[in-house]
Amino acid sequence: MIKIETCLTPEILSLHQLEGKIAVVTDVLRATSCMVAGLNAGVNSVIPVIKVEEALEYQKKGFITAGERGGVKVEEFTIGNSPFEHMQEEYHGKDICMTTTNGTVAITEAKKTAKEVIIGALLNVGTVAEYLKEQNQDIVIICAGWKGNPSLEDTLFAGALIHRLQDQAELTDDASFMALAQYQQANGKVADVIQNYASHAKRLSGLKAKSDLSFCAQEDYCSILPILNGEAITIKKN
Amino acid sequence: MIKIETCLTPEILSLHQLEGKIAVVTDVLRATSCMVAGLNAGVNSVIPVIKVEEALEYQKKGFITAGERGGVKVEEFTIGNSPFEHMQEEYHGKDICMTTTNGTVAITEAKKTAKEVIIGALLNVGTVAEYLKEQNQDIVIICAGWKGNPSLEDTLFAGALIHRLQDQAELTDDASFMALAQYQQANGKVADVIQNYASHAKRLSGLKAKSDLSFCAQEDYCSILPILNGEAITIKKN
């Protein structure tokens, strides 16, 4: 049996032992959804960094820069954190350096000790589940949350992943059980639940943000597995 | 509308602003259930403290001492943290000093800034809800959790409370919505869900612990409102 634990916010990541485990990091709105959508469309790699200054160093080296602070695009950056921006044809084959309020911090933390870091979003949740079944290793699902607080959409991702793994998995903490129950309670209407109840959805306003939200809330839109190799996230080839 | 937010673990309590708000602290297994059960049976007051040494100072002054470390009764203490111990006739009219791994720490933290601290358990959740409706003030529900992690039983208490308040309340964070969904998903079978899925339930073994668990999982067993007055928790009189 695969042992699964879920960390609902990076604030309590130190309570989780990541050594020897596969970490699956998610930030559904919108960092990891952007990464998955971009890589699936043709982006070559994404380097997650913590600080705006670090991203600007990569910009000097020719990288596309992407990301936000407090939900707003960083002025000097090429693009923000709408998945549609990351999918644009002009970035196919390009390398992106990205920094966001919650998501890239969670990835950087996970990298320090986990055996492997997988990038998950609702968009590729089925593919992540299939990969984890094959690996048959213990897993920690790390939800980026919102400024230290648990978030509904990331918890639903954890539940969607656990739902797909549950025949082969043992849930070792209450957070995993709660995430699964949350997903079951959504009863196939994950997008509606996120749109109606997630506080992050209320913070996103305007037509463009609404279409980002509908896009990011789709389960199994694509079947790629982004994995962290050294500094960069790339698609794992079979 | 009453604004409600939920803190799923004291580790992130600093992200919540308690000033001017009513804090409802819960530790269903078993600190606040013991307090509620004891006070309802006839205990005069309960003083929550952080350290075993502090409790032993109260013991010298004639207090009954109660509590655990890692789920085990502290050797020098009069009683542990089974609600049945707290309900014994010999403690009616007596003052108890209590320290536990998670619950008393959460109460002590809440006391620092909240306008008022209420002690909640499934046992008295309906009475807590009625009181909060009358007060019509903003609320933070603080779940004691288990060693820094969210716990299912405390989250279910939060959901049970929010469920009773929802017509008059606005949920201001995702944790509150998730707690409510968790309670709804339990579909009237809160005790079964705790017994079958809470990791804390798995840690409790033996017949005595099982009866503690069934007892603590009861909603609306009694109708008292324990409130923190200075150092001591007592029943609030109408």
TrEMBL record, chains A, B:
Reactions accelerated catalytically: (2R)-O-phospho-3-sulfolactate + H2O = (2R)-3-sulfolactate + phosphate
Gene Ontology molecular-function annotations: 2-phosphosulfolactate phosphatase activity; magnesium ion binding; sulfopyruvate decarboxylase activity
Keyword Magnesium: yes
Gene3D superfamilies: ComB-like
Alphabetical UniProt keywords: Hydrolase, Magnesium
Record bears the keyword Transmembrane helix: no
SUPFAM superfamilies reported for this sequence: ComB-like (SSF142823)
Pfam families documented for this protein: 2-ph_phosp
Assigned EC number: 3.1.3.71
Protein name in UniProt: Probable 2-phosphosulfolactate phosphatase
Species whose genome carries this gene: Flammeovirga agarivorans
Lineage: Bacteria, Pseudomonadati, Bacteroidota, Cytophagia, Cytophagales
